[in-house]
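fwd from M.: "can u put these together and see what the complex looks like"

so here's what she sent:
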Amino acid sequence: MDLSIVWESLPRLFQGSLLTVEITALSVVIGLALAIPLAMMRLARNPFVWMPVYAYIFYFRGTPFIVQLFLIYYGSGQFRDALDAAGLWPFFREAYFCAVLALTLNTAAYTAEILRGAIQAVPHGEIEAARACGMSRALLYRRIILPKAFRLALPAYSNEVVFLLQTTSIVSIIALMDLTGVARVIIARSFEPYKLFLTAAVFYLVMTYAILFAFRKVEHWLSGHLRERPSAEKEAAAAAEAVALR
Amino acid sequence: MRKFFTALAAVAVIGLIAGAASAEIKKVRIGTEGAYPPFNYIDENGKLRGFDVEIAQALCDAMKAECEFVVQDWDGIIPGLLAKKYDAIIASMSITEERKKKVDFTDKYYNTPAKFVQRKGAGHKIILEDGVDTVADVSKVHLNKEGLKGKTIAVQRATIHENFLRDTLGDVVTIRAYATQDEANMDLVSGRVDLVLADSVALDDGFLKTEAGKDFEFVGPGFTDRKWFGDGAGIAVRKDDTELREALNKALKQILADGTYKKINDKYFDFDVYGG
């Protein structure tokens, strides 16, 4: 099999991957920052607070990403005059901005829902204990509920980040040259879809592995208190052995 | 006795080959895009229509074969043919050297030039020469590289127009490649891009004559340079499918001669798309 086309395309595919990583990272960071207050609002008792958030989450979870992206990108094109008047058109003009906006809103909705579940899963006893210590609501959230909820949410959240990475492959429909977009441009002239999409798949696998690896490290770091400690007896035995050998 | 069987087997094999070669083509699966008005598009009732579709139907009638249409996105249309999802592509595909490396083409069934479109009065200048209607050799004119520098031009992905832009102006302009022509046109309307390059007839009927295209106009000459735009639109078949190619060529000659082609032509256009 002639693989020269793959070899020649590697630098361009790498360029495309950089854009993929960039928009994934931006959307993950902004999306997470949005998701924390959204999850808390979602749990509020006041219907004027939780209902709009509920509607937002329902919309973004209930529609395909490709539809969301089309609405934001081509939809904004229809309202150019209004956006111009509001000074927003320079943002919406850029496919890059539209892609990051759509991805951010999408992931924020999913992440808020993951966090909501995790906040609700914090054992009631821990909250009661904190209250008994006289913690204020803000302190309770900061010291007890959110740290615990993050640990609980982590496995589900790592899935969300991986899904988001895969979802970015759709942005090539608004003519962004991400990894998939570059692969398609090369295929347009070489007519070698299998070789190029397989190569792109390998790129995606490597990126996915990097995400999973990072999350494993974070999980390990956050769960130190759950692992077996090196016991005093074992340490003493080891020390005695060392002395005997000397 | 053995000789007799050998001879019998030989006769049988020859008979099979001859039989296969002369067998009539009964059913042809035709791949088309369905997003390139007026050549091929899906109407509001979800029916496939357009010039390509009617030509395809006429060719099948002439071959006395049954036609089945398969709709396929443009950038996967050649891979789909090679993967045998259908047997022929009738989708306004230009006959170019690049594509000939992968597929075979019939004779052309129409030929129209490529043109740029701009917002009315935008005043872009495509080539420096004045009064040129058609450019058959790009090396004989001067593209206005200085004036087009930094402009954004939209094309449909995997088209001869994309190739032409990348090769001739790729170093000075930003090229945005869209999955369908409609999306490229939409971004011209919204102002995200300055120019669109595509087939002049597709742009005229599919865009300029519609409500969305009323503020836009052609700019510059028509481009027909064979190096990129080939010999017009042909029907693509797999390289080993000589039989189908010949049958299609025969059918094409027939519909050109008996007036069927002209009837379809006149239904869609007020000029002759077959070209010189």
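replying to her w this: The interface with chain B takes residues 74, 76-78, 80, 93, 95, 173, 175, 184-185, 187-189, 191, 193 of chain A (CB under 8 Å).
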